[in-house]
Specification:
Length: 368
């Protein structure tokens, strides 16, 4: 009998799966379900995201996000063998408390892509709590080796505990989806503008200032919450804050010269910021420029797919933008390296392979 894995998240997995079925999004946004369904060794069940909104309002009063979802999980214990949460603590707090005191016994598998110590607090009791918290999970899959190493060091987690529960995997984009829609690369001459899309920890303001004195076009796609604070936009910068699907952005990515990932965050929050946008870079075979983030698995300069600049470095952005705009050979080489990275190191099949091993091992340990 194969393990039944219940997939929950802090955003709707049923909607993400529906978008994939309609061909409007890649399978990686369903965090391994599609690939594991195809492999056939694990049954992954998408759990309805939200049913009783009033429970979430109550949960917020007690600092527990997605209370509705967690209560419904508890009412459906017989329908799954393993609980899987790609965003770990954001929607498992109640379940983890119950697990720590022995009232919730289902194995829990999570992915980790942000710091687990939750801030600047250096208090020993706080660190003990964070350590206890993460080790309560049966398996934690880190999406970044630097983040994994930093977590072990800062929380003083023994080797015996980390080797038994921690592993490393690279979350990557859906190969099948991008082969269908995205790999028709346009030549340098047909690429008209730079593009920057995203909403988490984005520094669009610095990027806009870099373009203010350049004769290059920039298209920014964000959300109403992440819209740049810059009031006087230069005429060569266009901002779109409508909520668009990824499928809507494909024509813009195809016609872009490079994908830009400007980031801003305090040091203590340093995690996998920019990871989702890097997936777009390799998927479309594009060069990239991003704010330096040493916590990511992929070293973009070492892989030869782009450049990094320091946080808030307007002149650094201008320098790298000029190189890509004025050097077709560099642009072509970086594009080829992006495609190669996608095929060999950074895709959904590689992630699913590791995920499958973790689920089968966790199920075996629970049965044993």
């Amino acid at each position: 009998m194969k393990p039944r894995v219940l997939l929950i998240n802090n955003y709707s997995m049923d909607r993400a799966y529906s978008l994939w079925e309609k061909g409007q999004s890649g399978s990686h946004h369903v965090w391994g379900k599609v690939e594991l369904d195809q492999r056939g060794k694990v049954e992954m069940i998408v759990f309805p995201h939200e049913k009783y909104k009033f429970l979430n309002k109550i949960g917020k009063l007690f600092g527990i996000g997605h209370l509705d979802q967690q209560i419904r999980v508890l009412l459906n214990l017989n329908s799954f063998d393993i609980l899987y949460s790609p965003y770990s603590k954001s929607n498992t707090k109640l379940l983890l408390i119950l697990k720590a005191i022995g009232l919730f016994r289902k194995p829990m598998v999570v992915t980790i892509h942000q710091p687990f110590w939750m801030g600047k607090n250096e208090n020993k009791i706080f660190r003990w709590y964070a350590k206890k918290y993460i080790l309560t999970y049966d398996a934690s899959i880190f999406l970044s080796k630097p983040l994994l190493d930093k977590t072990i060091k800062r929380l003083k987690i023994p080797d015996k505990s980390s080797k038994g529960k921690f592993s490393l995997a690279q979350w990557g984009p859906d190969i099948t989806y991008y082969e269908r829609y995205c790999l028709k690369r346009k030549p340098f001459e047909e690429c008209e503008f730079f593009i920057s899309a995203g909403h988490t920890d984005r520094d669009f303001e610095t990027l806009i200032e870099a373009f203010r004195s350049l004769d290059y076009k920039l298209k920014i796609f964000c959300t109403p919450k992440s819209i740049p604070k810059t009031v006087d936009l230069p005429p060569n910068v266009e901002v779109n804050s409508q909520v668009l699907t990824f499928h809507d952005l494909i024509p813009f990515y195809q016609r872009s010269l490079a994908i830009l990932i400007p980031l801003k965050y305090p040091h203590f929050k340093e995690g996998c910021q920019g990871m989702t946008s890097i997936q777009d870079v390799v998927s479309f075979g594009k060069p990239m420029i991003m704010t330096r983030n040493p916590c990511l698995n992929l070293n973009v300069e070492k892989e030869g797919i782009g450049y990094t600049v320091a946080m808030y470095d307007i002149e650094g952005w201008k320098e790298k933008l000029k190189i890509l705009k004025e050097n077709r050979d560099i642009w072509n080489e970086m594009g080829k390296n992006s495609q190669l990275t996608f095929k060999q190191k950074f895709n959904s099949e590689i992630f699913a392979s590791h995920l499958e091993k973790i689920f089968l091992s966790t199920y075996k340990n629970k049965k044993g």
